Amino acid sequence: MGFLKNTLQNAKLLYRLIRPNAPNQRSTILKHYFWSVFSGFNYSKRSFWLVYQPDSNDISHLHPEMQELYKAWIRGNRLNNNGDLARFYSLILNIKKLFADKVPGDFAELGVWRGNSAAVLAHFSSQEQRKCFLFDTFEGFDERDLQGIDAKFGKSFTDTSIDYVKQTVGDKPNVVYVPGYFPESITQQTKDARYAFVNIDCDLYEPMKQALNFFYPRLNRGGFMFLHDYASGLWGGSTQAIDEFTKEHNLFLILLPDKSGTAIIRKSEN
User: Fold this and answer.
1) pTM over 0.70
2) Residues 6+ away with beta carbon under 8 Å from 261
3) CATH superfamily of the domain spanning 62-266
4) In this prediction, what percent of the chain has a pLDDT beyond 90?
């Protein structure tokens, strides 16, 4: 009874806090609130907190694509992404900053799973006719990577396929799917490319190490690398690989307060 009472009290508070001049948003926000509470029952014991949207979207309306992209952001992955607005907007804002700074190069993602963040990368890269390379086994973890620090993890993220990702990403001619075990899957096209934005979400030590060694030398000055799960405390192999690489190359990280502890590198030299 206490859980239900607190849930209803929070809903009433949320209803009052929603801007009076935006009544059409109330039902949508409340629906997402109740969904997140009950879908997360026995999954998360954390309190419910309001998350503000950036003024650039909520007041200045600078991101008209947000509503459509958000549908792809949560497709088949609502439990992880429904409330992860920090990461969602970090991708959008930094890609737009990259465009404003006229940083040349293609986009890439290693660790696509169901294509949620890939949809964001594909949307913006298509606007400037940049390639968007999507690397994944599309079959989950490879047994060869489940060694050492990552031996405790089993076969995961198998519930996907290229066809599923295509439905999330949409039909975009600039998107190039690169299936297979990384780095064996590297093609001549991806080796010759220069990159402006790279999102790495491969969870494990060996693929993260290989990804950093491959992509960073090919990242143009001013380009971004988003490194998912760095500060989550869940994927120690990925964190270790990033720490080793940044120490070796004298690089510094910016940490995001998103759900899974993303770290960012922005390259300052050629």
Assistant:
1) yes
2) 229, 230, 231, 232, 233, 255
3) Vaccinia Virus protein VP39 (3.40.50.150)
4) 74
